[in-house]
Design a protein that fits this description.
The protein has a six-stranded mixed β-sheet, with no helix packed on it. A six-stranded antiparallel β-sheet has the order 9-6-5-4-3-11, with helices on one face. Strands 19-18-28-27-24-25 form a six-stranded antiparallel β-sheet, with no helix packed on it. Helices cover 6% and strands 22% of the residues. It contains three helices and 28 strands. β3 and β4 form a beta hairpin. By secondary structure, the chain is mostly beta strands.
Length: 519
């Protein structure tokens, strides 16, 4: 099974919010000692003043319990009195944070603007919440937001529109500061926050909350050009040259070497025995190899040349076809026997999409046919294939093979046809649903590391396409056509994809387009 690969997008493809904004919930929050309240919720950090305290209780005399001392116990410190407005403020922040948005800053501003004019005696507070572009700050009364290392400071008195009761109020969108951000509600803490203190979630007493700077994700590098192959690969991440493996080109066939001709053998030197007076007998020296300084082996006859290799006979080509006259009757041996006539069909045949073939396991759906026999979603008015109106035919439901329900268009131009269920993630092939064949793997490469191994799944249910977050670490965001803010997808709760909807996973995003469905 081949795995479609959705590679990282180009550097200019992600929106501005995806580059230069650290994840809010991964920022450390240290709390300085104090009597106010510090509240941390997903996407929100609130510091609110505690206005009054109840008197300290009187010391209690020891009851003499075994093992305990007999001296009076130390009196408990004064406890804060219940404040209805403080509880309403914390509840408002909880409600906005629980709405499922990863960047609730703009919505929190709208909720505060609607609630504050109707409430009186609201304690001073300073709240920072995440937006897609940076931070949203809201300061009431003595609330202060400052970056001491850079000399930056905002107070409620800098607001343009005070509340009806005359108290100063400021709400503003700002960029993430590259240094620690300190939020307080007017208390002046004498002690700095402990270096090991880190409030991950909850409500604790404290004079101020210090948001430590977070590393900003770098812009993704330019991807390599697309690589062709059997797998659907649009683009792959760049590979270092040292670790790049290439297939060497196949060299052309080398003809066998032609043997060099043997060097000619020089003729043996002539021996003239007449002028020499040999005092020895040749027969007496039989078996000796030397005669007058010459070796007898040198006088051996040369080897005969090798016989020539047999030459293959030429290939006999078939004779050219003779011309045939279409007017003359064919020969008797060329006349074909008569065939049986084809059956006469009297019933109207179903279109090809509705033909039931044996062993066809493709999913079936019920729809309506246009006059050209194309199966369509009953909720559409025009055929998705030929474009004619489906109301020209009587709307009778018929069952047929389900066509592809749309396309996923990624931020780098890669497209995936939705003709089956898909599992999206960094390592989708390791999921049991992919191993069993229930889903197809869709590999999404994200250089920011925001895509989980098994991030989300896309299922085709009838004529609808639904998206479900399957427990990803960084969540899945979506925005319908025309919406200006992202909505967080609740894990395990499916949402129907509609044409024009944009989905974001980590640093990647894709859009859903489809001609089907009654949208």
């Amino acid at each position: 099974m081949t795995t479609p690969v959705v590679p990282p997008a180009a550097a200019a493809a992600p929106p501005a919010a995806a580059v230069g904004v650290p994840p809010f919930d991964q920022v450390g929050v240290a709390v300085t000692p104090g009597q106010d309240l510090v509240v941390r919720l997903p996407g929100i950090v609130l510091v609110v003043a505690v206005q009054a305290t109840s008197p300290a209780p009187a010391p209690v005399r020891s009851s003499g319990l075994g093992g305990w001392g007999v001296e009076p116990a130390t009196p408990a410190a004064a406890t804060p009195t219940g404040d209805r407005r403080l509880g309403e403020l914390v509840g408002l922040c909880r409600r906005v944070s629980a709405a499922g948005r990863r960047a609730p800053g703009r919505r929190l501003h709208e909720e505060l603007r609607a609630w504050l004019p109707t409430a009186t005696d609201v304690p001073s507070f300073a709240v920072a919440s995440a937006t897609e572009e940076g931070l949203a700050l809201a300061l009431l009364g003595d609330g202060v937001a400052e970056v001491p290392e850079l000399g930056l400071k905002l107070t409620g008195a800098q607001g343009q529109e005070p509340l009806p009761d005359g108290r100063p109020y400021l709400d503003r969108l700002v960029d993430w500061p590259p240094a620690a951000l300190r939020l307080s509600a007017g208390a002046t803490g004498d002690m700095a926050a402990h270096p090991l203190a880190d409030l991950e979630a909850g409500v604790v007493p404290g004079a101020a909350a210090v948001l430590s700077p977070a590393p900003v994700p770098a812009a993704p590098a330019a991807p390599a050009p697309p690589v062709s192959g059997g797998t659907m690969i649009a683009q792959l991440p760049p590979i270092p040259l040292a670790s790049r493996v290439t297939t060497p080109p196949v060299p052309p066939p080398v003809p066998p070497p032609v043997p060099a001709p043997a060097p000619p053998v020089p003729p043996p030197p002539a021996h003239d025995h007449a002028p020499h007076d040999h005092a020895h007998d040749h027969g007496a020296h039989e078996g000796h190899g030397d005669h007058d300084g010459h070796e007898h082996g040198a006088h051996a006859a040369p080897e005969p040349p090798a016989p020539p290799q047999p030459v293959a006979p030429p290939v006999q080509l078939p004779p050219p076809a003779r011309s045939v006259s279409f007017l003359a009757p064919p020969a008797a041996d060329e006349v074909e026997p008569p065939r049986e006539p084809l059956p006469i069909v009297t019933d109207e045949q179903p279109p090809a999409a509705l033909a039931q073939e044996e062993g066809d396991t493709r999913p079936k759906v019920k729809g309506i046919l246009c006059k050209n026999g194309h199966l369509n979603d009953p909720r559409v008015l025009f055929c998705a294939q030929c474009g004619i109106r489906t109301t020209q035919q009587t709307a009778v439901f018929v069952e047929g093979v389900r066509p592809p329900l749309g396309l996923l268009v990624f931020d780098n131009g890669a497209t995936v046809t939705l003709d089956a269920d898909y599992l999206l993630g960094r390592e989708p092939e390791t999921d049991e649903r992919v191993r069993s064949g229930a889903h197809r793997p869709l590999l999404v490469v994200d250089q920011t590391g925001g895509v989980s191994r098994h991030h989300a799944e896309i299922r085709l249910e009838g004529w609808d396409v639904v998206l479900t977050d399957i427990g990803s670490a960084n969540g899945t965001l979506f925005a319908r056509r025309g919406e200006l803010a992202w909505t967080s997808l609740i894990p395990g709760q499916p949402v129907q994809l509609t044409p024009g909807m944009t989905v974001r996973m980590g640093g990647r995003q894709f859009a859903f387009e489809s001609p089907h469905g009654g949208y």
